[in-house]
Amino acid sequence: MSETDENKTEEDLAEGTLLSHLIELRGRLLKITASVVVLFICLLPWSGDIFTLVSEPLREVLPGGQMIATEVASPLITPFKLTFFVALFIAMPVVLYQIWAFVAPGLYKKEKHFAMPFLATSIVLFYVGVAFAYYLVFPLIFKFFTSVAPQGVEVQTDISKFLDFITTIIFAFGLAFEVPIATVLVVWTGLTSPRKLSKARPYVFLGAFIVGMFLTPPDIISQTLLAVPVYLLFELGILMSRIFVIRKEEPEEEEAEASE
Length: 260
Hints:
This protein is 78% helix and 0% strand. With 260 residues, the chain is an all-alpha fold. It has twelve helices and no strands.
C-alpha cells in the first residue's frame, strides 16, 4: 500500500471516529432533553403548587405574604418557567450520567472504577447545594432585604424577578458544591498536587469571595454564605484527593519539601 493510500485510510478512520462520537453525543443530548421534557410535562398540573412552595421563604417575610405580577402574562408564564427549572433539577442525575457515559469509553478500567463513586458524589453534592440555598440562604437574605427597606417603603416583589433571582442563586450553590469533585479531578489529571493546592489556600479563600461577589446579590450575607462553603469544600477536595488519588510526586517537589 502506498503512502498516499495509508494517509487516506487514516483520514477516513479519523473522520469515521469523529462522526461516531458526534452521533453518540447527539443521542446523549436527546436522552437528556427527553428526560427533562417528560418530567416537565408530568409536573405541569402542579405548577401553581410548585411556585407556592418555592416562594414560601420570601412570602413569609413580605407584608401580607403577597407577591405582585407587573406583566400581563407573568401569572401564567412564571410558574411554567419555574416548573421547567424544577424538572431540570430533578433530572440532574440523568444529565450527569449521560455526560459520564459519553466520556467513559475513553477512561481506563481503573479510572472507571473511581468514576461511578465520583458521579454519585457529584449528584449528592449538587442537591446538598440546592437544599443549602433553599433552607438556609433564602430565609436569611430575604429577611435581610426586607428589613433594610427605608421607612415608608413597602416591599413588593415581582414574581418574574423573583424567579430570575432564585434560579441564579440555586445554580450558583449547586455548582459551588461541586468544588470537591473538581479538585479531585484536577489532581487526578496530574495538573497539580494536593501539596500545591495546600499552598494556594490564601488565594482560594480570596477567590471564593470574589466568585461570591459575581454569583450572588451585592450584599455581604449572601456572598459570605457562598464563599465560606466553597472554601470548606475546597479543603474537603484536598482531603479526598489525598485519599483517592495515588500519584508519584515529582522529585523536585519532595526535595523542596525536605529543605523547608
